[in-house]
Amino acid sequence: MTSSSIDPSSRDASTSVQALRDLVEQFVAERHWHSFHNPKNLAMSLGIETGELMEHFQWLTLEEAADVQHDAAKKHDVGEELADCLAYVLAIANAMQIDLSSTLAKKMIRNAEKYPPP
User: Fold this and answer.
1) Which of 26, 66, 81, 98 could lock 93 by a disulfide, CB 3.0 to 4.6 Å apart?
2) Would 2 be classed as within a structural domain?
3) Where residue 93 sits, what CATH number does that domain have?
C-alpha cells in the first residue's frame, strides 16, 4: 500500500478503519518510527494534539465556536488537528493490537446502559 492508495478526498462511508490503520502504519514504517511508537509516547502525543485542537476554540463563546464550521480556513485548521488526533488513536490501536470497531461497539453498549435515554 502506498501513501497515495487512499484518496484524500475519499468519503468516510467508503474508507474502512483498517485502511486508515494501514495508512498510519505505512507512514510510521517508512520513517522507522516503531521504536518511538510505544503506548506511553503515543498517548502523550495524542494529549498534545488534543490540546492543539482545543486551542482553536479557547476563549470563544458557544456561538463563536459553532461559527468555526462556517469559516473555511478555521474549519480546515480544525480538521488538520482532528486528523492528527485520529492518526495517534490509530497508531495506539496498531501498537496495542486493539480492534477499534468492536471495542467502540462494546463501549457504546456500556455507555447506553450507564446513560439511558430520558
Assistant:
1) 98
2) no
3) 1.10.287.1080
